[in-house]
Specification:
The complex is a heterodimer of chains A (255) and B (411). With 255 residues, chain A is mainly alpha-helical. Chain A is built from twelve helices and no strands. Classes of the chains: A mainly alpha (255), B mainly beta (411).
Chain lengths: 255, 411
């Protein structure tokens, strides 16, 4: 397993796209954080990039990579290896290399330019987002054998999580504006990993606007230690569920 | 020259002839303060030796200079009003007054003035009184350099630090007030100055105006109160060079302006408040050279406000610069610096070439549906905001600064 992991990791890390991704992240991070005179503002700009670009790159790159390594997987399957081991090491290799790229690209400038409590939350959330979207990519590759379809599903899922879902929430908010829906909205938000990450970071950054009644409820749910644990458990389940499903399917799949 | 020397000599003489100094307290001939006051004549000086005095209520009924040596403690043991002043021209200097009676209808205080003009209360310490200093129908008084501390829990179970009622020409200078209901409370007070005070950690307001006209408060610090300052139902109040900091919480404001008119707000700094300024039913307020920094809402301008002018202010790092409750706009924004301004300046005159609309659509949505805060900073919301900026449909398009500055003012 370790050897497969090593191969995958090294293979991806030599990949020019990942190097480019690292460079672009670094460019964005350094420029936004050093150009803005207000540190929080820089972090917020970066937050938007992270919540948009990181999922997109993670999900697309992983999908395409898994499709492209179909032959490699078939080769491995012919060896006396457990199927789950192959799938897990592929997943770990992809996740680790993308996390590595994220930490090198965005993590270092964030650590250098901002306070520790904001920085660690930002980096942690970025890492979670990366792995979550790798896991979702694994699920979409296993659903269909057709490469075009698989990539299509990935893009649609990304669109759904980063755009459509918020639109839907906004629509619901308008429809049920007259009812006390705060608590349900909090639950609804935690069903989207991107929204959950955004709220987690905002609680570190923009406390002022988060105050008020809704803010108080946010703080109650996400801000307390218990809330943080629940939030990170939710994020973790966003990794475990899609990947677990894909693993079950992969074990039984006729390659 | 000869005359003037003569006049000065007569003054000196009169001092020696008419005014005496009496020392009371432990180790003196007279121990009880009340008895000392009875012994004194009007205009005398009464020195109180250090120690703890539990004499119940002390009544000052003649013009005296009462001076404490090393802060003698006058303890009301939560049973009495500590000092009642019922005479003009009294000065109380250097006492430590504590534990007045609490929670009763007649508002007991550490020092209470009953229709007493020209009274000075200076350099005293107050601890755990219901009201610390209470001025009632008392004009031309000075309250200066006092340190006032209490540990109030609720609004109803505590009094104010400095409470002024139906008074005129007061000077409230350089006091430090913590832990009361309102730090300083003025009701029906006119022509007065509140200067260089620090009011923090009070349950309700740092400074509270009710029906108090033609007053000024200058260079005060209001920190971490329920709300920094509330100015209500007043006219001609000048608010200059104050600091409003860290007034956090659900219904918390740096400065709350309600039903006031013709006021002037300049050179103030609002830093890290949930809402820096709330204007509700205000008329003709001029606000200039203020700094709004890192607040949740810099300015909540209800649509019942008219004729207010905001110019040469800095808006920096606020989550929302402006929010409003309706579409009626009869206020003017001119030549402010908005850090969210994205325009350009081709002729380099430091004034942006395109007008700035400070009201974001999202701030309106949040005003209507507070739980929409959940989507704050999400991609779709920024998208909506951007398109609204280009073509205003929900936000009133006359909500505009025609001359936004390109660089922040040095304030």
């Amino acid at each position: 397993m370790n050897r497969i992991l090593k191969y995958v990791f090294l293979d991806i890390f030599q990949n020019k796209i990942v190097i480019l991704y690292t460079l672009i992240l670094a460019l964005f991070a350094w420029s936004t954080l050093s150009l803005e005179d207000n540190n929080s503002k820089g972090l917020l700009t970066l937050l938007n990039i992270i919540l948009l670009a990181v999922p997109l790159v993670s999900i697309l790159f992983s999908t395409i990579y898994v499709y492209n390594s179909n032959e490699f997987i078939e080769l491995l399957v012919s060896h006396p290896l457990k199927r789950s081991k192959i799938w897990i090491s592929l997943f770990l290799g992809l996740s680790l290399s993308l996390i590595f790229a994220f930490v090198i690209g965005a993590g270092i400038p964030i650590l250098l330019f901002s306070e520790w409590d904001k920085a660690y939350m930002m980096i942690l959330v970025g890492m979670f987002i990366t792995v979550i979207f790798v896991a979702i990519a694994f699920l979409s590759t296993i659903i269909t054998r057709d490469k075009a379809k698989g990539i299509g599903i990935s893009i649609l899922l990304w669109l759904y999580f980063s755009l459509l879902f918020d639109g839907l929430v906004l629509f619901l908010l308008f429809q049920f504006a007259d009812y006390p829906i705060e608590k349900y909205m909090v639950v609804l938000t935690s069903l989207n990993p991107i929204d959950l990450s955004r709220v987690l970071i905002l609680l570190e950054l923009d406390v002022s606007a988060m105050m008020g009644y809704t803010g108080a409820i946010f703080k109650l749910y996400f801000g307390s230690n218990g809330g943080l644990i629940v939030s990170f458990l939710l994020l973790f389940s966003w990794i475990a569920l899609p990947f677990g499903l894909s693993l079950i399917k992969f074990r039984k799949k006729d390659l | 020259m000869k005359y003037s020397i003569g006049i000065i000599f007569v003054f000196f003489l009169s001092h020696f002839v008419f005014s005496k100094t009496l020392t009371v307290g432990y180790g003196q001939k007279i121990v009880r303060i009340q008895k000392g006051i009875a012994t004194c004549n009007a205009g005398d000086t009464l020195i109180i030796k250090s120690g703890v005095y539990r004499e119940g209520n002390i009544l000052v009924d003649k013009p005296l200079y009462i001076l404490g040596e090393n802060y003698p403690i006058l303890d009301g043991v939560f049973k009495d009003e500590v000092i009642s002043v019922k005479s003009a021209y009294v000065t109380i200097d250097g006492l430590h007054i504590k534990n007045s009676r609490q929670k009763t209808l007649d508002d007991p205080a550490g020092i209470k003035l009953y229709e007493s003009n020209y009274v000075n209360i200076i350099n005293n310490k107050f601890t755990d009184n219901f009201f610390a200093v209470y001025l009632q129908y008392s004009s031309h008084c000075l309250v200066k350099n006092n340190t006032i501390v209490a540990h109030a829990i609720g609004e109803t179970s505590s009094g104010n630090g400095i409470h002024c009622w139906y008074s005129d020409s007061l000077l409230i200078i350089a006091n430090t007030i913590t832990g009361h209901r309102d730090g300083i409370y003025l009701e029906f007070v006119t022509g007065s100055l509140v200067w260089r005070n620090i009011s923090q950690d009070n349950v309700r307001y740092g400074l509270h105006f009710m029906f108090s006209h033609s007053d000024s408060y200058i260079t005060n610090v209001f920190k971490n109160n329920g709300a920094g300052v509330a100015v209500m139902f007043s006219k001609n109040v000048k608010m200059v060079n104050n600091k409003f900091e860290q007034n956090w919480g659900d219904a918390s404001y740096g400065l709350l302006l309600k039903e006031i008119s013709d006021c002037y707000l300049a050179g103030n700094k609002f830093f890290k408040n949930t809402t820096a300024v709330l204007m509700d039913g205000t008329n003709r307020i001029e606000a200039e050279n203020n700094v709004f920094q890192n607040n949740g809402w810099a300015l909540r301008l209800q649509s019942n406000c008219t004729g207010n002018v905001l110019r040469y202010n800095n808006f920096l790092g606020n989550t929302f610069d402006i929010s409003t409750s309706g579409s009626l706009v009869s206020n003017t924004f001119d030549s402010n610096y908005w850090d969210k301004y994205e325009g350009y300046d081709l002729n380099k005159d430091n004034i942006g070439d395109i007008p700035y609309h400070p009201l974001s659509m999202y701030s309106i949505i949040v005003q209507k549906i507070p739980s929409a805060m959940l989507l704050f900073r999400s991609f779709i919301v920024s998208l909506l905001d951007k398109s609204e900026k280009v073509m205003p449909s929900l936000t009133p398009d006359n909500f505009v600064d025609l001359n936004p500055l390109m660089h922040s003012l040095k304030l």
